Amino acid sequence: MQRLWLIFAQTVTVALAILFALSTLRPQWLPAQLSRTPPSLNIQTKPAEQAAMPSGNGYAAAARTALPAVVHIFTSKDVRTPRHPLMDDPLFRHFFGDRSEGSTQRRASGLGSGVVVSPEGYILTNNHVIDTADEIEVALQDGRKFAARIVGRDPESDVAVLRIKSPQALPAITFASSKSLNVGDVVLAIGNPFGVGQTVTMGIVSALGRSHLGINTFENFIQTDAAINPGNSGGALVDTEGHLVGINTAIYSRSGGSLGIGFAIPADSVRKTMDEIIRNGSVTRGWIGVEIQEITPELARSFKLPLQGALIAGVARNSPAEQGGVKPGDAMVSVAGQSITDPQSMLELIAAQTPGSSVKFQFVRKGAPIELTLQIGKRPLPDKTQQE
What we know:
388 residues, Thrombin, subunit H, 4 domains, 7-stranded antiparallel beta sheet, 6-stranded antiparallel β-barrel, 21% helix, 32% strand, repeat, protease
């Protein structure tokens, strides 16, 4: 009996060993219910050649379309370093000598981005990128570098136009209408952040028509959460087809880096400014010569003013406003039939008028409505005192 039990145990052990070997080395020889891999599960791995092929997902096509038209802008200028104040101390000069040299000069550099808008070499960027620069160099995506000249600039909208001379036609971006943008649309920001090289970031349109930010005199920004950092200024904001919808201009940041709140000038506004700069070398806007302030509820109650409009705080001497009969304390409520909601809208409506034309203005004076016709003047170059 003991011998039979021993033979049985050995047989079972050998059978289990054979079964284990088959399930490990040749599982396909076993019945389906004994196989370790369910027959319905078919896991496949792409060949190396297929895995390396573009998947077609994402926004690679949009990036390929726009990238060649986005350039790096390098600026340089002479900066004077003031003389050390100790050099004015007679005791210091007694011990260390009279070094009569004044301030010293050093070369300061800056960087930004730009967008090629025509094969002839016209480039859009921000005015603050090239402001006060002595030399401007543009580097294309293919590595070629060119000296650039300033065609014209508009500090009040922070737009500048450069031009480079290339023997070959340059890749130019295609404009899209900003009116086609909606909050929530996907956009790509392209530029040269921190000088690391051409970079693409993705986000959405967070808001449209942003103003009252104190960035420019004339504001109508696209807000986006696509990462925009120093060096991105003047770069392209494009849609999912690679078409230009805005020029990246500013960020809201407490650290100097992106916090997800960036601002771009809409393509429609930029194109209008660009066309006028290329045609005339500058931008001409309307002006009447008044100082304005917001109408608060307290002012409205005290002086019988409308809540909407702009309060005339002062009138420049010999200005179109003075010649037309505008007085301090008047509240302007419409320009050429268009209602004024606040001082910013008044600024934009007057700037849009053609210098030399006669335009009807609606005011409220001491609670009574009046109408005055003013001849629009040419807006002077910006200075430290803002007037309209």
